[in-house]
Amino acid sequence: MKTALGYIALFVFLMVAPSAVAQRSVRVAYVDLDEVLASLPAYTQAQKNLDARVEDWKKEAQAREEVIAGLKQVLAQERPLLTPELIQDRETEINAATQELMQYRQQRFGPEGDLMIARKGMMEPIQDQVYEAIRKLGAEKGYDFIFEKSSDAVMLYAQKRYDLSDELIRLLSKAQLKEEYSLSDQVINDRIKAPEPSEAQEQRLAAEQEKESERTQAMEAKNEAKNQVLLTKKQQQDSIRAARVAQFEANKQKILEARKARSQTSAKKKDTIQ
After folding, report:
1. Cys-Cys crosslink for 196: which of 145, 180, 201, 221, Cβ 3.0 to 4.6 Å?
2. Which range among 19-23, 130-134, 145-149, 160-164 has the greatest average pLDDT?
3. What is the Cα–Cα distance from 216 to 224, expressed in whole angstroms?
4. Residue 138 within a domain
């Protein structure tokens, strides 16, 4: 988009400049918007705030990934001991957590996510002020065209004496851009989501806490039920194992008794023959 606008501006300049030269000299200048923005405390502070927020979002996504990985590892270890129903419950839980992670990423980093909203909210007021300062500077100095140096399609070569970046920075400093447009974390939050009234916010937090408490209780009850099933299954397995051992011992005793009986019968026959 930026490159396309640059080509359009260059085309307009090439079309208009020759006719303008025939009447008077054309005054042309340029600004380096990257340099201008980097010099603005409001822009650098807003960028730092946004970077910190993005880092928090990335950490949250990574934490969720680790939870899912842990659930998968536990399922792999306990699968031989679980019933098909319990395996299905575990897989459903993992799938739900994975779906929530995808939704979280979309909410934060998607095309219409919080990152794009915050970035737009951060840049728009600063850009408006910068463009207004460029317009004012051009009108006061009598420039016919002011180009952007950072545009790929426009500035192939330019002499430094036509660079208005320093003048633009001084003009913006006088306008006290920092006090008027400095975006703190709270402002970024407000642009992501409109603030709620205090009472409504308290009700929302209470509802979220109650929901989280119910979810925790449900998970505890579910885990208790799973543990009970595992305990019952283990008891059944122990009972079966004990029964097998008892049966083995009984069979062993019968064999020993039969062997002893045969030995006694054989001894009696020998005594009779003698």
Report:
1. 201
2. 130-134
3. 12
4. yes
Predicted confidence (pLDDT) at residue 74 exceeds the cutoff of 80: yes
**Cα 264 → chain centroid:** 83
Burial call 143-173: b when 16+ CB within 10 Å, e when fewer: bebbbbbbbebbeeeeeeeebbbeebbebbe
pLDDT exceeds 80 at position 191: no
Tokens (6 digits) for 81? 């001991």
Sequence-distant (6+) residues with CB within 8 A of 41 are 177, 178, 182
> Whole-angstrom Cα distance, residue 168 to residue 149?
14
Q: 146 by DSSP, 3-state: which? A: strand
Question: Does a structural domain hold residue 1?
Answer: no
For the chain, give the number of residues: 274
Using one digit for the tens of pLDDT, what is the confidence trace for 151-184?
A: 554 555 556 676 777 777 787 776 654 454 444 5
Q: Which residue has the tokens 């680790």?
A: 66
- In a domain, residue 266? The reply is no
Extract the tokens encoding 255. Answer: 């064999």
So what's the pLDDT on residue 167?
78
d(CA 63, CA 58): 9
Which residue range(s) make up the domain with 168? 32-195
pLDDT digits (tens, 9 = 90+) for 208-242: 677 767 767 777 777 777 777 777 777 877 778 77
Q: Rounded distance, CA 201 to CA 147, Å?
A: 48
Average pLDDT over residues 251-263: 79
Q: Which whole-number Å values give the CA distances from 246 to 237, 259, 264, in the listed order?
A: 14, 20, 27
pTM over 0.70: no
Residue 87 lies in a domain: yes
